Amino acid sequence: MPTDHGEPCGDRHLSFCLNGGFCYLIPSVSRPYCRCSDSFTGARCQEIFLPSKKTQPKTSTLTYVLVLAVVIGVLFMAVLYFICRIRRKLKMKQNAQDFDFHGINCEREAP
């Protein structure tokens, strides 16, 4: 598994890369680097790479939760708006009935 990044390591770094990783040296840098096989990762290919299918569902689940929260928030605000509007109308109607009950005309006459 050669790489275009540098030259293969010599005998000095023969066992630097683990789990079948390919060791190479970059001429401008003095330390070895590894190119790991598909099943391993890490600086020396020391960690098993387990592709996870849960990454995508977590993202889509988070998206669904956020969209649902926004929709619920908008519905909540709409309900509050209509409750306040109904209460204001009822209060105005109650005030108009109270004024009529006492014989007071609350309508303004045009000059």
Automatic annotation (TrEMBL):
<feature type="disulfide bond">
    <location>
        <begin position="36"/>
        <end position="45"/>
    </location>
</feature>
<keyword id="KW-0245">EGF-like domain</keyword>
<dbReference type="GO" id="GO:0045840">
    <property type="term" value="P:positive regulation of mitotic nuclear division"/>
</dbReference>
<comment type="similarity">
    <text>Belongs to the neuregulin family.</text>
</comment>
<keyword id="KW-1133">Transmembrane helix</keyword>
<keyword id="KW-0472">Membrane</keyword>
<comment type="function">
    <text>Low affinity ligand for the ERBB4 tyrosine kinase receptor. Concomitantly recruits ERBB1 and ERBB2 coreceptors, resulting in ligand-stimulated tyrosine phosphorylation and activation of the ERBB receptors. Does not bind to the ERBB1, ERBB2 and ERBB3 receptors.</text>
</comment>
<keyword id="KW-0964">Secreted</keyword>
<dbReference type="GO" id="GO:0005886">
    <property type="term" value="C:plasma membrane"/>
</dbReference>
<dbReference type="GO" id="GO:0008083">
    <property type="term" value="F:growth factor activity"/>
</dbReference>
<dbReference type="GO" id="GO:0005154">
    <property type="term" value="F:epidermal growth factor receptor binding"/>
</dbReference>
<feature type="domain" description="EGF-like">
    <location>
        <begin position="5"/>
        <end position="46"/>
    </location>
</feature>
<keyword id="KW-0339">Growth factor</keyword>
<protein>
    <recommendedName>
        <fullName>Pro-neuregulin-4, membrane-bound isoform</fullName>
    </recommendedName>
</protein>
<keyword id="KW-0325">Glycoprotein</keyword>
<comment type="subunit">
    <text>Interacts with ERBB4.</text>
</comment>
<feature type="transmembrane region" description="Helical">
    <location>
        <begin position="62"/>
        <end position="84"/>
    </location>
</feature>
<dbReference type="GO" id="GO:0007173">
    <property type="term" value="P:epidermal growth factor receptor signaling pathway"/>
</dbReference>
<keyword id="KW-1003">Cell membrane</keyword>
<dbReference type="GO" id="GO:0008284">
    <property type="term" value="P:positive regulation of cell population proliferation"/>
</dbReference>
<feature type="disulfide bond">
    <location>
        <begin position="17"/>
        <end position="34"/>
    </location>
</feature>
<keyword id="KW-1015">Disulfide bond</keyword>
<dbReference type="InterPro" id="IPR000742">
    <property type="entry name" value="EGF"/>
</dbReference>
<keyword id="KW-0812">Transmembrane</keyword>
<dbReference type="GO" id="GO:0005615">
    <property type="term" value="C:extracellular space"/>
</dbReference>
